[in-house]
Amino acid sequence: MKTLFLQPPSFDGFDGGAGSRYQAKREIKSFWFPTWLAQPAALVPDSKLIDAPPARIGMQAVLAEARRHDLVVIHTSTPSFANDVRVAEQIKSAKPGIKIGMVGAKVAVQPAESLERGGAAIDFVARNEFDFTIKEIAEGREFPAVDGISYRGSDGKIVHNKERAMLEDMDQLPFVTNVYKRDLRIEDYFIGYLMHPYVSMYTGRGCKSRCTFCLWPQTVGGHRYRVRSPGHVAEEIRAGLKLFPQTREWFFDDDTFTDDLPRAEAIARELGKLGVTWSCNAKANVPRDTLKVLKDNGLRLLLVGYESGNQQILHNIKKGMRVEVAEKFTRDCHELGVKIHGTFIMGLPGETKETIEETIRWATKINPHTIQVSLAAPYPGTFLYKQALENGWLDASNAELIDEHGIQIAPLHYPHLSHTEIFDNLETFYKRFYFRAPKIASIVGEMVMSPQMMKRRLREGVEFFQFLRERHKVAA
Hints:
single chain; Rossmann fold; 3 domains; seven-stranded mixed beta sheet; six-stranded parallel beta sheet; 17 strands; globular
């Protein structure tokens, strides 16, 4: 079947690429590569991938392309689901005989509900890992013979086929970079803390950590870190250097690339031979000796989920991290010259006005190079979602995670801390972190040293203040 893989048109600035943990409008323009769609696209010959938001592709162009295909696979998410169903309905109207399937964490954990809400527009949803599921459907296999999908039977009742076995040999997966080259323009993808242009990919799936809020390990990836061999990763980077000689940085989007330290060091040494600059997700407990190996072989930046500076909150969310360990790790990075983009979450269980203040003070103390502050988002399928419903922290009938413009809202509330207080303190956090003389001097220093950075930081500054204005409208 001629297959179209689609990240649908959405609100302006929709950061919904499958690598994104928060499908919302970010503080500055941010677009992740749609790696989870590119992977099955690499398995299906003559397929096409459209990532509409960063490419600024509208609905008319999507419909024109869909008419030339037999199967459309839509990546969806909890925040974007209603919009994605409308897109599917328009495609069905334009070509009634086309088959449409949905993939992503939303349909993995709520297959029946998704099919019911999708109505006649959605023929099937793929649960959990879906690479070879989609390959089999594209090859024409009948739905009853495909593991890992849910669909309507001939009697109209929803059928859930048996689970698909998790992929163990990750080297079976073809390179996503070939699909990027064929269908995407890498210059369309921006991340504020990565050099531009960048390219991201996965070297493994799953995460050993048990963070209660984290979407992917609890829904699609699992808690075992299943990995590609260092040689396979290096081979894709070598091929990628030829496909994208303009790339300034490679990013490994594994949930926690440092879960397997010997392997991380082995990959780093391969990358060191290639002379590439790279970054990855890491937990704030990487030993100094490993950090030095990574740094000596091209590591520039670590994306680190600190979440909170309060130890009890870290226990509450099962982070498996001690504040003093994170502090030592951060000092080691500063001393070795490894930059950190630190991420924090406000409104997690146990949050109070005092813990918000504690986390803001702690963030300024450890001083990552840049930060991202998000609002606790209870995605269906996570422990946090179940916990919030059971404790009355979340009103299930008003559980939206974003507003109609894509701005993240604060769905959780506690007897001692309201939605509004959580929402408003996000801006306070950003201002107190960035509007400090040393931080301003650091940013200005970057801009003076690089004309490209000057242009980029000025653009990001404009986008940030526009973002704050839009948040004020939401609050009003």
